[in-house]
Automatic annotation (TrEMBL):
SMART domains: LRR_BAC, LRR_TYP, LRRCT. Transmembrane segments: none annotated. This is Leucine-rich alpha-2-glycoprotein-like. Residues 1-36 form the signal peptide. The keyword Secreted does not apply.
């Protein structure tokens, strides 16, 4: 991409079909150039390519009042605007990407996206949105990436998301979500990445993940989950990366990971797990099997009670120890005899194949 300069677009004489557009761009753009155009610090930068114009507005630029009709990429960031003009996107029907992060946006008009049915990416990171208007996405069938990270959402209503047919990546992290409506995601047939991290979720509806989904990556870290039930993850057999760290998980159901044949990464660190039920690990991370946990797992910073109830985990750990993260920070909290020992050391001493299961742990 090259910086737009007024000379490039003028045909040598005759009626220039782009003339009015060129004049318009002259008014819009900051184009510091050898031709001596006076840079306007309050204007946005425009770059042109065969595909259309990319417009970038950063401080000290102001929100543009008009945009080139061929704009395909628009970034208006760090401007601290709480509202955008209602007709902000009027006339840019080819817009594919819209980046509005780090403003103070408090609300969006319900017709905000109507002029841009081809929009594929919408980034609203770090604004002050507490809700979205119902029907905001009614023409957004092409939108595949929606980022609402670090806003003020406390809940989510299914009606806000109606119309999204191609959604592949939904980022709701860093909000204040306490609950999510059941079946919320059931219409998203292409969803591959769902980020619900760093919210205030205490429980999840058992059918939250129901539907013909293709989820590969699920972020639930930094919430207040206390239990992981059987069945929540089961509708998502393609799940590869699962983040559950920094919750208050004290219970994981024996069948919680059942059916997750692709699981390559599991983070359960910094929870309240003292034990896990027998059978939990049978479905994940078997060496040599297709589902091999190849990107690693982390069960550190849990108050493990290292007694015979963990025999199942010990065996699994020994078989998968090369994929273990933070093994030094994975300690036994109890019983006294092994308090402070690493879980792996205890597992190794108990799971020696020749020694038999009854071998005591060295104190
Ligand atoms: C223009 O669009 C085509 C097809 O989407 C893409 O391959 C190409 O990289 C784009 N060119 C520029 C300069 O953005
Ligand atoms: C936006 O707000 C932040 C924090 O209050 C401030 O540091 C920054 O200078 C502001 N930017 C503009 C363009 O006003
Ligand atoms: C799924 O889509 C149908 C048809 O558009 C709609 O009636 C229903 O409310 C949607 N469900 C959810 C949970 O969004
Ligand atoms: C552990 O998680 C809690 C939230 O449950 C968080 O406040 C804390 O900072 C985390 N600790 C570490 C060491 O990451
Ligand atoms: C973890 O333990 C190993 C072996 O005891 C040691 O070599 C390594 O330095 C330790 N790592 C950390 C981060 O403490």
């Amino acid at each position: 991409m090259s910086s737009w300069s007024p000379e490039q677009n003028q045909s040598p004489g005759g009626l220039d079909p782009h003339l009015s557009r060129t004049l318009f761009l002259l008014l819009l753009i900051v184009a510091p150039s050898a031709q001596g155009v006076i840079p306007n610090p309050e204007a946005c930068q425009v770059f042109q390519s065969d595909n259309g114009s990319s417009v970038n507005c950063y401080p000290p630029a102001k929100v543009p009042l008009q945009l080139p009709a061929d704009t395909i990429f628009l970034s208006v960031e760090f401007l601290n605007v709480t509202q955008l003009p209602p007709d902000f996107l009027q006339g840019v029907s080819n817009l594919q990407e819209l980046h509005l992060s780090s403003n103070g946006l408090e609300s969006l008009a319900d017709k905000f996206l109507l002029p841009v049915p081809q929009l594929k990416v919408l980034d609203l990171t770090r604004n002050a949105l507490s809700r979205l208007p119902a029907g905001l996405f009614q023409v957004s069938a092409a939108l595949h990436t929606l980022v609402l990270k670090e806003n003020q959402l406390q809940g989510l209503e299914a009606s806000w998301l109606l119309g999204l047919k191609a959604l592949g990546h939904l980022d709701l992290s860093g909000n204040r979500l306490r609950t999510l409506p059941p079946g919320l995601l059931s219409n998203f047939t292409d969803l591959r990445i769902l980020d619900l991290g760093n919210n205030q979720l205490e429980t999840l509806s058992p059918d939250l993940l129901r539907g013909p989904l293709k989820l590969e990556r699920l972020h639930l870290e930094g919430n207040r989950l206390r239990a992981l039930e059987k069945g929540l993850l089961a509708p998502q057999p393609n799940l590869r990366h699962l983040f559950l760290s920094d919750n208050q998980l004290a219970a994981v159901a024996a069948g919680a990971f059942q059916g997750l044949k692709q699981l390559d990464m599991l983070d359960l660190s910094n929870n309240s797990l003292t034990s896990v039920p027998k059978g939990l690990w049978a479905s994940v991370g078997r060496p040599g099997a297709a589902w091999d946990m190849k990107d690693g797992f982390d069960i550190s910073r849990n108050p493990w009670v290292c007694d015979q109830n963990l025999d199942d985990l010990y065996q699994w750990l020994v078989a998968n120890k090369d994929k273990m993260f933070s093994s030094n920070a994975t300690h036994c909290a109890e019983p006294m005899a092994v308090k402070g020992h690493t879980l792996l050391a205890v597992a190794m001493s108990r799971a020696k194949p020749e020694a038999g299961a009854e071998t005591g742990v060295a104190a």
